[in-house]
């Protein structure tokens, strides 16, 4: 990788009504013309992303969105996309030149999602009484910064406010291997090479885990599943951890001695990108599935299915084999996620290696509100193949949840 992936960057969303100066504020923050600026209302029609380094924050993604007061059939679609952008927003800039019901609704949505807000009162050169800023401060929605793009005022203060709040915003819950390995440990990564493996490279989850092993000052050994037994035999000391591709769980669990911690890349990502404990609960809902139940399999990215596709072929096969009956399985890719989940008995999400944690937590929250269990690929595979407890052993909190639910 030549640069930090978007999934590991702080996502800063810029929201507001049409023509309040959202794009102008973004261009001024970046000191470059990123978004088109025009006096015509509704110039920004789709979210515009700009990847950059914001020192001393580090790698960030600014997301410029369409106006929340857009009108007409197309306008409604643009507004829907704007509100959808909240799902991946770590920090929101709400730009306004007067406070209306639009801003009030927007801030309420951001608060519900737990997204910190900075209110940017733009066009300050047209006001001199400070009443707008005082009114918004009384609402206690977040810090208020007055800006004037015409007079080039307030942008430095806004940048400093972003820096201060960013220190309290955690993009990821933990490192991938946090609490699992120590300096000098050996970690074995089991990476099957099959028709789904990208030619000449590894998939992103495997690359990120390999990098984390090196960052932890550990020794990484990457092997195919057919070389695992020989590798373990050749090691003078057992590895501190074995991480396998979920599809090889059954074979690898038979090869790795019970006293060596074993888990999967996707299980690591359940903790890293989402909430492992809630996903463990979701996976255990598999026990309650019966023939005809609707199950949603959700992918973060769209891709062309190849051969034995993990989400469309393998997981449905393993799941239905475990249940012992046919399930009604649907697949949603990319942004296609049903607004109404009430008909589903379970949502199974991919590892979301290309998403930030905020997006995954948003989907978990949607499922929670619909009272639908939510889990991910790796946990589903481990449960279906009978190696669930083994895959959870490295995680004390997840094991506690599992044992408590298993007693019921």
Please name the defining characteristics of this protein.
single chain, 408 residues, alpha/beta, Rossmann fold, 4-stranded parallel β-sheet, 15 helices, 14 strands, globular, GTP-bd, GTP binding, Small_GTP-bd, FeFe-hyd_GTPase_HydF
Describe this structure in words.
With 408 residues, this protein is α/β, with parallel strands linked by helices. It folds into two domains: 6-166, P-loop containing nucleotide triphosphate hydrolases (Rossmann fold, 3-Layer(aba) Sandwich); 176-408, Rossmann fold (3-Layer(aba) Sandwich). The chain is built from 15 helices and 14 strands. The protein has helices at residues 22-30, 72-84, 101-112, 131-139, 155-166, 204-215, 228-234, 249-255, 265-273, 276-284, 310-323, 357-369, 377-384, 388-392, 396-406, and strands spanning 10-16, 48-54, 58-64, 91-96, 117-121, 144-146, 186-190, 219-223, 241-244, 262-264, 294-299, 328-333, 344-349, 374-376. The strands form three sheets. It has a six-stranded mixed beta sheet with strand order 2-3-1-4-5-6, sandwiched between helices. β7 (186-190), α6 and β8 (219-223) form a beta-alpha-beta unit. The protein is globular and about 75 Å long. It starts with 9 loop residues before the first strand and ends with a helix. The mean pLDDT is 89. This is GTP-binding protein EngA. One of its GO terms (biological process) is tRNA methylation. Residues 279-394 form the Hydrogen maturase F tetramerization domain. Residues 11-123 form the G domain. GO terms for molecular function: GTP binding.
